[in-house]
């Protein structure tokens, strides 16, 4: 007690506003369940593992900690097969009605043990202890009772998360017109009024018509008659028959809002048509259930996860898995891939101790600290050890659970702060943007992906040329389905499939035949020149046609290739192309090298006067924006379709929605200047926030006129804002164009909104599969079914 008395002034009682890190160490993945437990400072409330507490003590002088150690004990659970199988009804993991990651596993109860520890000698006082000073007892009890900082961050991020069932109330729900046309809907025997469909039927709540729904990507579903009816009548709400339950719930779709919605007045709206929901039983599959089923109709699930046979697990440094924290597999696969690359290994593992030692402020809020923590967790081998003797053969390794990292990088982001499934390409771009902001381009490991794209335009009238360059980190490639090398085989399969469905049957997943595409066909689609209409030629001061050719002006150390598998179907449903692309193990992209201006070429002159901006059809612009498309993309669509109407502009958007410049400020082709000209709207927006025009211009120049990145640049380059000199142009690593495949990330499911990601990485000349917390030797790496590929320069 005397030892404790000397430190009473450095003990605080945490309030509700204090962050208490008691779930895991802020510098490592030690937690109360690890052998040495976790130590929580009774002053800063920072949680520390045994490997980090001495350094923290020497740096801060804080000596008193609450030591938390947790033991788990197996408890009896319901025997397998006892009771009905739990039905999955939500597109989420670890929530009621969703996928239960612990289904079928052993159940445990937990017991926590507490003690007070005083450094530097780790003197221990047991808890509870009525002889402790009042402030010590109050501090310890508050640490125990308060929710952890990690849990609070997760709850904050989850507010408003869509999990497959939570829907907004329709704007039509409270004033929906219902016609008195004498119709009464029978409880059974429904059929589409325009075809013979007897399933996937929708009751229009305004006029009582019963029509079939949309056709799904695989040919099942309906014939779009309900949608066509809305386009004629404008009656907005329809409920899917067979999904209505006695509690007044059902699948309600709003055609005007283009989404599944909530209708709190559904009971009254159904009663208008003589439907007493007390007599109804749910018989048809809900939209959530249908999407879940579609996700598993393809054999890609088994192929990508290599479930055909048992896989040999791997343990040790570099073979640590990551727990799926509710649809976090996109994060897991990206981070496993990045920590295969020396640039990330060297900085966030090799220099981890330096990063930890130099941290100021809250370590859980420090981007570089949390990356170093993740790097050490994945690469040290501390959290990847074989199970003890006698463990079940199928026991899953625990892996690490990077909650702090996920909360930090998702903070404030409308998508990555949630538990929704995300696109790995978008997440990688987000992460590299954060890297650039937090490293200020000093030893930024993300630079290993950066390359320069060269665009060459040739005026059809004057034959003069113009060159533009931009920076990219991912090479997106379209998949030309018409280049399939097995068209006859695919056609025969589709015929067999149609015949089977006509007889109410379905072909086995193992019999699926996918279009096979050679990778170089995808590469050709990138290198082919395209005709640009309405190109402003400064040589003739008029709009002409021009030919555009795209090449790479530099070759990065690591080339990331994205196959553009995700697209919008004609009815706006997001789908994924189910194709097989023959990706090479070794790749030579030397023919893609841009040559730059040639001596015999004459360059287009700089415009003496900036040409007037094109006139956009405001009605079409407004309708496209109402659909949710970015304004700059809408301008592009209208311009490139020559103001020819909504349908043409919409088709253009669907074709170009994955373009890297889709949301960039629109500049009419040919009017770009080699001298930087800030976008006027972006400039005004930044100036309105209190920055000078000079500061705003400098930020926009450093970020290619991207206002969001410009704001990030301003806050991370405060010391450069008033420097007269312009920001240095970005530098690009360059070298030979010969590469080898070292990793790929694959997606299972019908769209980026649902499904699962796994990573395959080449380590020590052996392919390894990283499937969340499971790490094993890959027997048959499915290289042809990947979504994003990483090539390393040879």
Automatic annotation (TrEMBL):
Binding site for Zn(2+): 192, 195, 212, 225
Pfam families from the UniProt entry: UBA, UCH, zf-UBP, zf-UBP_var
Keyword set, alphabetical order: Coiled coil, Hydrolase, Metal-binding, Protease, Repeat, Thiol protease, Ubl conjugation pathway, Zinc, Zinc-finger
Enzyme kind, highest EC tier: hydrolase
Active-site annotation: 329 (nucleophile), 756 (proton acceptor)
InterPro entries, per database record: Papain-like_cys_pep_sf, Peptidase_C19, Peptidase_C19_UCH, UBA, UBA-like_sf, Ubiquitinyl_hydrolase, UBP13_Znf-UBP_var, USP
Biological process according to GO: protein deubiquitination; proteolysis
Ranges where the UBA domain occurs: 615-656, 677-717
Classification via PROSITE patterns: UBA (PS50030), USP_1 (PS00972), USP_2 (PS00973), USP_3 (PS50235), ZF_UBP (PS50271)
Designated name of the protein: Ubiquitin carboxyl-terminal hydrolase
